[in-house]
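Reading a protein record of the kind used here takes only a little practice. Each token is a code from a learned vocabulary of local backbone shapes. With that in mind, consider the following protein and its fold in token form:
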Amino acid sequence: MLVGIDMQLEEGSNVENLQAQRCRARIDHLDSADVENITEWNNTKLKRILVDYMLRMSYFETASKLSESSNISDLVDIDIFREAKKVIDALKRREVASALAWCADNKTRLKKSKSKLEFQLRLQEFIELVRADSYKQAILYARKHLTPWGATHMNELQHVLATLAFKSTTECPKYKALFEPQQWDVLVHQFKQEFCKLYGMTMEPLLNIYLQAGLTALKTPYSFEEGCTKEDPLSQESFRKLALPLPYSKQEHSKLVCYISKELMDTENPPQVLPNGYVYSTKALKEMADKNKGEIKCPRTGFVCNHTDLVKAYIS
């Protein structure tokens, strides 16, 4: 008995020491940011963001290699995400034991945040017993595991207990929904929410958040049109998907970019208008004219004219 207690105390002490070490490493990392090493500090931050994304996508081996080679193991949460992955995989296999064990390990913190995860897991386990026509076992399970939740979740409890009468073959939409496979997807999503809340993480990967911050400054209505240039990040479908819920950037001053050279058209490189109405930069058109003995060919329409036919445009 005493040996078991000693082992538990030692294990708890090791975990606390490890957490303290990681906290110290992260505080030291934040304190180390200054003008002299800002480039190196930003590179470390970028690697942390990439590791965070890999862990959320379950690329644990790659994440481990990057963190070890960059010496940032104490700045990332590989072990925590591995633990979460085991629970998620179990829920996808329609097993609740791992999730219930996780709830038991974090019972105090989950109670403080008024989490309903354990209750939802218990309800799902009850539903599975009803699905298997194990009604007697389901009643015994409800008495043992669901009764304590009656004081705070009576309405939901009554709703689920009614499945004993309606059974899994019911066509009543209100109770049929409880037996749908999608209920397991709901549990996976709910676990992810509770997991992120417990560890102070965002539901969205940090990489997505930083990309969205940049895309907000670039998003314009033109970015979603067919004529959007390939140089615009929003010409890519993956970036468009990230930018879709974001507001358009507030562009008080327009910028003209040459279709040919992709350079900015300004007072140093003013725009010139072809007889067909298309506009390109002076520098690009001059280079084209020098190569073709004064001849200009519009790259978008194929229209041909002489360099002397160009008209200078003025930016207001």
The radius of gyration is 30 Å. The first strand starts at residue 256 and ends at 257. The mean pLDDT is 88. The chain has 15 helices and seven strands.
